[in-house]
Amino acid sequence: MTFTAFAIATLIKILVVLGIFSALAGFGTYLERKVLAFMQRRLGPMHVGPYGLLQVLADGIKLFTKEDIVPQNSVKPIFMIAPVIGAATAFIALAAVPLLPEFTVFGVTVHPIIADINVGVLFVLGVMASGLFAPLLAGMASANKWGLLGAARTAIQLLSYEVVTGLSILAPLMLVGSLSLIDINNYQTGGFTEWIVWKQPVAFVLFLIAGFAETNRTPFDLLEHEAEIVSGYATEYSGMRWGMFFIGEYANMITLGFLASLIFLGGFNDWGFIPGGLAIVLKVSFIFFFFLWTRAAWPHVRPDQLMWLCWKVLMPIAVINVVVTGFVLMM
Amino acid sequence: MSLEQFKDRNVMQNYTYIPVDKPPVKPMDKFKQVMKRTFKGELFVGLWVVFREMVKFDIHTVKYPLEKLPVSPRYRAVHKLYRLLESGYERCIGCGLCEKICIANCIRMDTRYDENQRKEVTEYTINLGRCIFCGYCAEVCPELAIVHGQRYENASEQRAHYVLKDDMLTPLDFLKEGKQQEYPGFGATSPNADERIKKTPLAY
């Protein structure tokens, strides 16, 4: 393949991924509102379009046309760039994620991954972790005490749970012996019983818990918990800048769904009679649904409980898991 | 009951205290508590409850502008002025009791004698911006001429809209269609009033 062909193909992939995942992030808000409403015996959005489907569009128009307020005492350049970091890192993380199995369109074999780098997991986790700068800088730059509290919570929560994510994912990586997400996926070709979740159930649970903390979802949504710190780091944001935080959060949720499916739940291998492409979409959808489900069911924890859980419970368990996996592999 | 007893404000209440365990202090106890809570399955009970509600799909939403909950007949919303059923005359005899009793001082009426020497109400206004919807006017009215209706959506572009007599008075064509419902609510006679009535003996 020539360089031009490669460049054009990559550019098309980038545009497709960007378009689809921005739309999915928007659609995710609709799904979240609907699912939460049904679980609380409400109807959710119903008036804009059939079953409220065009609510996303209405919200988009509202966000785009709202006044872009930058507070007087804020550090303006940082205040303005912080949401961009949030959205950008969320999408950049998707670059190394194989989204679907290979397929052929018009005689061209398409690899649905933008950059097949051999340290895919590291790249994705690293970029997702650097996304912590978005709420951190936003909160610190916005000259608001709630924003500052949100930023402080960002720093402790995301940094701490990064450790748990890394350690929990280490055990499956030791099994596979590769950091490439495609290799991890191919390791689980054997079908339902070959899924890594059966070999590493503890790591799976730890990874999910840490994922909730890193995407700032309900049991651990301390960064912008309304009852305590108004809206946390996003207090001073409005309009599209706030919307970018939102898109970033939902894109992160989807990325995390992909990661969990690829590493633990068999990825895009065929699942019985279900073809691989559909299988991974189902798995990611279930994990996304699980995010919403817990939001409807569970209360959130206190910051000190969160830290206690991270450093005194989850991290030791993760380390023990790694050690045990190591011994089993040696024998 | 003696006065002493009556003055005693130390009321004994039968409070039942729910036994609450002391929060764990030692790290190991804390860990045990977390483990107990983790593996007790309470989190999964929560998940199950919301999932069950989603699947049951027992939606309680009232789509308000399209659907409305029924209002009690005794609800005291915007007033209505009624007409006599057969003749179509206004029931109001201009006695002015409602104007007198109104504690918010929002009723104002003007009367005169018409050509039949019958009291006629020329102006009847209720300032709904001041009305507290206490229902005294409806209760005191001897003719059941002013009653409280069910119309609670009284948003308007102008305050002047709050006071118009024409809005409250039953329209004539409405009356002819027999749509003026007899008032079951505040200050009205009971449905079986005819049975309960005691005839005044005329001859002693």
Q: Any overview of this molecule?
A:
The complex is a heterodimer of chains A (about 325) and B (about 200). With about 325 residues, chain A is mostly helical. Chain A has one domain (about 70-330). Chain A has helices at about 5-40, 55-65, 75-95, 120-130, 135-140, 145-175, 180-185, 195-200, 200-215, 225-230, 240-265, 275-295, 305-330, and strands spanning about 105, 110. Chain A has a two-stranded antiparallel sheet with strand order 1-2. Chain A is globular, with a radius of gyration of 20 Å. The relative contact order of chain A is 0.14. Chain B is an alpha+beta fold. Chain B has eight helices and four strands. Chain B has helices at about 5, 25-40, 40-55, 95-100, 135-140, 165-170, 170-175, 195; strands at about 80, 105-115, 120-125, 145-150. In chain B, strand 2 and strand 3 form a beta hairpin. Chain B is elongated, with a radius of gyration of 30 Å. The chains are: A mainly alpha (about 325), B alpha+beta (about 200).
